[in-house]
Amino acid sequence: MRVLARALTLALTVALPTALAQKSVDQTAARLNLKTGEYTPTNTLPALGVGLDRGALHLGALRPLPGLTAADLRAAQEQTPRSYGYRCTSPLDLTVIPSSLDDQRVLTDRLVLTAKAQVLTHLDRLSVLRAGTSAAPVLTQLLPRNDYVVVATCDARADVDATGQYTYVDVPSVTRRTVNATLDGLVGWCDAEHDTAVLVTRAYRGAVQAVRGSPDGQLIATFGWDDRPLLKIWRARDGTLVSSAPTEPRTDLLLFSGDGRFLFRTVGPNATTREQIVIWHDMASGREAGRLSLPAGERFLAVSDDGSLVATRTVATASRVRVRHVTQKGLRLDATVPNVDDLAFARGGGAVVALDTKGQLFSFALPGGTRVAGPTIPTRGVRFVLPGVEAGSVVIKTYEGTSVFSPGRTVTYGWSAGEDLKTLASVTRTGEQLVGASPDGRTLTVTPDCVVPVPQKGS
What is the spatial distance between Cα 179 and Cα 198, in angstroms, rounded to a whole number? Predict the structure, then answer.
C-alpha cells in the first residue's frame, strides 16, 4: 500500500516508546496472546500525523483479537467504508493502543482533535477520519474495545454508489415530515407520499452526528463536521441555512427548550476533568447564552419549558436524578432511582419524571422532591419520555423491538402523577417505516424510511 508503506517506514524510524509505555505495550500483547514478532512497538500513527505517548502495537498481520472478531474486521474493511461513500482498496493495517475503558474517550478525543485528517464521524464506539488526497484518500477508523483502541487504516477510493442510508431521524410534529440526516453529510426532508426525499441539501462534508427539530416544527438543528465541527440551524419548511457556528468536537445531544427559545447541547465529557458541559444558545440572536459544567459521571437528559432548569442522571447503577437551575447554584432535586433510562420535565416544569430500564415511571415534585411511584409501561423495547401538552403531564413514546427501525408496534402513553396510565395511540410499523407523534401523543404519522439521494452537480 502506498500510504501505509510510508507509514510503517516512519513508524520504525522514530524513537521507541518509553519504558513505561513499553510495559503497557507488553502487557497488552500478553492479554491479546501476541507473541514476539507478531507486532512491532511504535509511538506514532503516521496516517493521522500524530504521536502516541503511551506506545502502541503495530500488528504484522490482519487477525482477530480478543474483543475484535472476524466480523468486526469485515465490517471495518467493507461495511463502514461503504456507509461513508468509500471502498477500501487495500487490506486493513492495524495498530493497537493500550487504553482502559475509562480512558478511551480521552484518547480518541485527542487523536481526533490533533489528527491531520478530515473527521467524518466521532462517536463513542466509532470514529472515522479521512486523510491523504481526494485522488488517493486514506480511511482510518478508531474502534474502542475493552482494554485497547484499534486503529484500522486502509487505502481507499471514493465511491458515491457505495454510500449507505444510515440515518439519524427527527420528526418535527407540526410539519408531518421526517428529517433524515445521513452519515455522508446529507439532510433530506421526507413525507408520507414519497419514498425518496422531496428536498435534499449537503449539510456537511463529514457525517451529520446529531439532529433535532424545534417544538413548533419550524427549525432543524444539526451537528457535524466540515473542516471543523459546526452547529447549523436550518429552516424546516424549505431547508434554508439560517446560521452556522463553530463548536467543540463532540455534541452528543441537541435539545430545544419547550418554548423553543433556547437550544441546548452537550459537549464532552471533558478530556481532562471528565465533566460534561451543557451549552445553550439563544435562538433569537443565534449566540451562546451560557454554559454549565456537570460533575464527573453526570449526564444531561432534559430541559424545562422555559430553559431555566436541567435534569441529569449519574451513570452509576444506583443512579441519581438531579435538577439544577442553569445560572443559580445548588440542587433543586437529588433523588435515587436505580437504572434510569430517560428523563423529562412534565409540562409546566412542576415535576420531573424518570423512566427506569424496567419501564417504571417515577415523578418528583418541584420544588420539594415529593416522590410518586407510577405505573410500569407495558410495551417492551425502546422507550422515550417527552413533555405532554396538558399541565403536569408527560407522553411516553415506545417502540417494540430492538430499535426504532425494527418491525413492531409504536405505542404512545400519557401520564400525570397520581393518575392511571393512558394509552393514547398505536400503530404497527414495518422495518421500512418511521413514526412521528403529535405533541399530545394522540396522532401518529407513519412515513417511509425514504432514500436520501446524493444531489447532482448543478441541481
Answer: 10
